[in-house]
Amino acid sequence: MSSTPSSAEPGAVEQAPDDRNAAAASHPPDGGREPVLSVRHLRVEFPTRHATLVALDDVSFDIAPGEVLGVVGESGAGKSMTGNAVIQLLEPPGHIAGGEIRLMGRRIDDLAEEAFVPLRGRHIGMIFQDPLTSLNPLFSIGDQLVETLRAHLPMSERQARERAVSLLTEVGIPAPETRLDSYPHQFSGGMRQRVVIALALAAEPELIIADEPTTALDVSVQAQILALLKRVCAERGAAVMLVTHDMGVIAETADRVAVMYAGRLIEIGPVKEVIRRPQHPYSEGLMASIPGLAERRERLYQIEGAMPRLAAIPTGCAFNPRCPHAVERCRSERPELLPAGAGQAACWLHDPENPVARRDAPRDTREVAR
Question: Where are the coiled-coil regions (predicted)?
């Protein structure tokens, strides 16, 4: 599968039939708007002395203006790797080996580092999991905000400081005029994360990548941060790629959800549909492992086995060793994203011509969180 630029229109993508299927699978429901971020057949490799490890394999999705796309999966699924590939923060020798990444229609995956640097902050904001890794402990919050603003926008020192106060107010920092001169260690974890969000929003980027932004926060602060992120981005029309392992965060914040496994996109669709009626066995397992409020159970459901190592990804469907429905076809042929319910799932259970028969589930379907 491939997509090549059209000579008739710079930046346009002429889609082959398979590409149209990938586009249909990844487009948001209101496909009339041009996506802020468009990823097509993304492949990331890490060459080693013994073999070339494939960290991301044929990943395609879009994010529309004002939309929050949740990216979920176990550790090692490729969630953070996808975000790092978009913003070109892959650790060497990792590199993009195939596919395209477009921001507002402009291809950015093939840009040299010096050409990509102006995009970071100005057009792509990044919120990291630990705010202490994003904030310099030697400089005040105000200095860091002012520096970021002046680096990307034509502002004087005074204008940037006024804008910094406005940003801190917007993200809910009390007494922003005073706290502007405080240092990161003088803020709580939740307040530091608010400052990181302010930094990410400072230059009003079109795309925000939030990599596990609430993992280290308590539940009440987590809810405030998620509500803040969703509100601010909806008001500004920014697209958000929310990376997390927490399906509760996805349910509360995202408009659509993309489920990843072993560097592959295995299900994508509206968040309510994926949560209530997951179409891929892996998604079913993720939902079944969430404790419900309606009944008490001594033991939660657990997906048997573990995520495969990059050097030992199975042939066919990567999930087949852990799947209760796997047959020989699953072990030899890799499924593409197929229409399934209100979304798409990469599973032979949904083959329109020759679907794999579903075996008895390893749990009562009533245990799936709804």
Answer: none
| Cβ pair 80, 259 in contact under 8 A | no
User: DSSP of 202-226, one letter per residue?
Assistant: TT--SEEEEESTTTTS-HHHHHHHH
Task: Provide the token pair at 170.
Answer: 């917007």
Mean model confidence pLDDT for the chain: 87
According to the model, what pLDDT value does residue 361 have?
Answer: 54
**Closest-CA residue to 230 (of 70, 6, 370, 33):** 70
pLDDT of residue 362: 46
Contact 28, 64 (CB under 8 A): yes
pTM: 0.85
> What span, in angstroms and rounded, lies between the C-alpha atoms of 83 and 209?
6
Convert the pLDDT of each residue in 34-80 to its tens digit: 899 999 999 999 999 989 999 999 999 999 999 999 999 999 999 99
